[in-house]
Amino acid sequence: MTEKREIPIHVPVLARVEGEGTLELRVRDGTIEELRLRIFEPPRMFEKLLEGRDYAEVPDMVARICGICPVAYQMSAVHAIESLFGAQPGPWVRDMRRLFYCGEWIQSHSLHIHMLAAPDFLGSASIVEMARGHAAEVRRGLKLQALGNDIIRLLGARSVHPVGARVGGFHRAPARAQADALREKLAAALPEAEALVRWTAALDLPADEQDFTAVSLRHPREYPMNEGRLVSSRGLDIAVSEFESRFVEHQEAHSTALHSLLDGQPYLVGPLARLNLNFDRLPSPVRTLADSLDVKFPSRNMYHSIVARALEIVVAMREAIRILEAYEEPVSAYVGVSPRAGAGYGCTEAPRGILWQRYDIDATGKIAAARIVPPTSQNQARMEADLRSSLQSLGTQQGEAALRRRGERVIRNYDPCISCATHFLDLRVRELKHG
Amino acid sequence: MADRLHIIGVGSPYGDDRLGWVAAERLRDCLRLNAEPGRIAISILDRPGAMLLTQWNETDEVIVIDAMRSGAAPGTWRRLAVEDLASSHPATSHGFGVAGALELARELGNLPRRLCVYVMEIDASWSGSGLSPAVTDAMSVLVHEVEAEIARRFILSPLTRMTGTA
Asked: Whole-model pTM?
């Protein structure tokens, strides 16, 4: 006879609107038979909303997909549309887009490190508990996050759903005095960001080597943000426009999110994948800092993601300072573009990993079809594989509370949209026993 | 340092979740005629999480308006003081909500001088792009209540005192 025991556990802190997660386990005689991670994902809805809209509306619309990474959605969109239209916005716009992205990396990574990841490694239930023993670190995190928001506000007019970006460039250029003031603030805070790196590397991070395929952009000279080819740790090297030839999304019945596979296999995107594949593209002082740590890259330990994030904060701060030092007000903050019918492709490095977009546009500039592949859905298959192995090795006989804690900690390494909630997992264990 | 009142509408662009933004925008219109420049700030924030506590100084008075999911009837609103938030952890629709931010502010010694939160129940079944009918109907009452509180405890008393000592 088979005994079924179904134990739904609802975590009574509500998940955020832009994403919520449910983890379902089916366990038979101590072995995980099936593992399903459900994630609600808003980009799918936006793909439909974009149809029929004018190309010029796209940057403002996609900025609303995510409250944490609006810049990423905007940058992939403008690059996709400009690649189709043959627009060349020039070096000023290119620099400002990199600066814009630096702001988003700083704020998003700082949020993740302090709100979500660090409390796990310090044995704290939340950032509030962590603040009792680590107030200075929490203040430093909030300060860095605010600096990231300041950069976004400089170019986006506001840090919430920034409206500054447009196809062809930006709606307006910041004044030189604003740029100078921000550069000074960033330069003053740089030592704190470097201290953050050393602090994360000194945390008691679990040893957990895993085999995974890392995927990121790669640029000939720079640490990648807005430009580059798609590469992997297994030799992939393709243009952004060739994404669909190797990466295939499929719908799992249990989830609204699409699962994306590379040549049929799960893969990792995000800071650890990016750093693993682009360690040689770190600016020299950041490379020196990284080399001084006990944590070494490339790394196969997903828990080293927190160190990768901290290093990327330093990359972004140094890049922002460099760009602001050379800042000049332009004659125009954008170039004009002319619609052209066809398909345009864009891929940029969102804080959580590559964000790929495709727009099919008609000759009048109307969007015929849109496709948005966010990092969270690309990491989903990898997250499930990691969860299966981590929870199995923890032991399914552990109580639901222990399973949920471990599950949350594993998922947080990937910083999916759902991780915006401090606790998010609605864990359902279905246990089947032979009696 | 002069007292400052900061009204913060918290939300996201989705359906009723934007009710805090809508209320703050309406207050901006209402208060434009009455406000003393520089003393009343109105902000709209998208799920600020812990960053909420960087929005104020210790000398500020703060009113936060947020969406709530508690199981009450859509459009139901409540006014919560800091103490209520600390004890009851009301279920705002944002993961690290106002209660969490206030707890963190307390740990870091960064609470504003005075703070209250107005919350309104969303219609979780509503999938339209704007506000649900229930929240739309209740919005004017909420805005009126917040405006009355501002007039009662901030604009009238502190400003009068300040004028007298100027």
From this structure: 0.86
